[in-house]
Amino acid sequence: MKDFRLYAITGEQFHPGRSMIEVMEEAIKGGVDIIQLRDKSGDKAVITEKAKALRELTRKYGVTFIVNDYIDIAMEVDADGIHLGQGDVPLLEARKMVGNKIIGISTHAIAEALLAEQQGADYIGVGPIYPTATKVDVVDPVTIAYVREVVKEVSIPFVAIGGIKLHNVDDVIQAGATRICAVSEIVGSDDVKGVCEAFIRKLERG
Ligand code: TZP
Ligand code: MG
């Protein structure tokens, strides 16, 4: 897959009154190079429309587009890939459905990371690093100790996620993360572009 540094996930609850496309376009202008549509409403017709709009936006800017949970919607809108949790469709089954599209897998422990790598995931999520209110069924924070373990033992790309803010991202980067994902810190900001630029500067300083 095309490499990435700053990963944004949609979170419409954080920007009432602003459209998702407007917020995501600002994030792209600030340096986000991969976007995931994450919508837990269960309304597939609505999610499909959002996916189409995000596909159009990301294609315009050459940004990678990932759909969370819904393989069928990802295929329908020709997303670049899908993101799956530990309780979703198993990776080997998903691979048969998506061919060579990107598959990202959320992991919370080194055994899950190694299994995802072995089964052909394109990248893994590593988190939640810190407590987060964005995800309801989230497991306990894995802390940056897990980042250090993944750096040592895993070869595929990984992205750190969960409670990552401008004020704590330096510790995550120092632990060895070169790709960062944030939801509320990016889309909940009054200055989405500025926050993304600040994340990128920190990643570049590494
Ligand atoms: N997966 C693990 S933590 C998380 C997801 C989707 C939510 C991260 O949101 P925030 O607002 O960046 O803490
Ligand atoms: Mg899922």
TrEMBL record:
One term under GO cellular component: cytoplasm
Keyword Magnesium: yes
EC number: 2.5.1.3
Keyword Magnesium appears in the UniProt entry: yes
Cofactor note: Binds 1 Mg(2+) ion per subunit.
Signal sequence, start to end: none
Catalytic activity from the UniProt record: 4-methyl-5-(2-phosphooxyethyl)-thiazole + 4-amino-2-methyl-5-(diphosphooxymethyl)pyrimidine + H(+) = thiamine phosphate + diphosphate; 2-(2-carboxy-4-methylthiazol-5-yl)ethyl phosphate + 4-amino-2-methyl-5-(diphosphooxymethyl)pyrimidine + 2 H(+) = thiamine phosphate + CO2 + diphosphate; 2-[(2R,5Z)-2-carboxy-4-methylthiazol-5(2H)-ylidene]ethyl phosphate + 4-amino-2-methyl-5-(diphosphooxymethyl)pyrimidine + 2 H(+) = thiamine phosphate + CO2 + diphosphate
First-level EC class: transferase
GO biological process, one term: thiamine biosynthetic process
Keywords: Magnesium, Metal-binding, Thiamine biosynthesis, Transferase
Top-level taxon: Bacteria
Annotated GO MF terms: magnesium ion binding; thiamine-phosphate diphosphorylase activity
Gene3D superfamilies: Aldolase class I
InterPro entries with a match to the protein in the record: Aldolase_TIM, ThiamineP_synth_sf, ThiamineP_synth_TenI, TMP_synthase
The Thiamine phosphate synthase/TenI domain, residue ranges: 6-186
Cofactor(s) this protein cannot do without: Mg(2+)
Binding sites annotated in the UniProt record for Mg(2+): D69, D88
Pathway per the UniProt entry: Cofactor biosynthesis; thiamine diphosphate biosynthesis; thiamine phosphate from 4-amino-2-methyl-5-diphosphomethylpyrimidine and 4-methyl-5-(2-phosphoethyl)-thiazole: step 1/1
Binding locations of 4-amino-2-methyl-5-(diphosphooxymethyl)pyrimidine: Q36, L37, R38, D39, K40, N68, S106, K135
Residues reported in the UniProt entry to bind 2-[(2R,5Z)-2-carboxy-4-methylthiazol-5(2H)-ylidene]ethyl phosphate: T132, A133, T134, G163, V183, S184
Entry similarity comment: Belongs to the thiamine-phosphate synthase family.
Matches recorded under NCBIfam families: thiE
Summary of the function given for this chain in its UniProt record: Condenses 4-methyl-5-(beta-hydroxyethyl)thiazole monophosphate (THZ-P) and 2-methyl-4-amino-5-hydroxymethyl pyrimidine pyrophosphate (HMP-PP) to form thiamine monophosphate (TMP).
Name listed for the protein in its UniProt record: Thiamine-phosphate synthase
Organism: Paenibacillus endophyticus
Gene this chain is encoded by: thiE
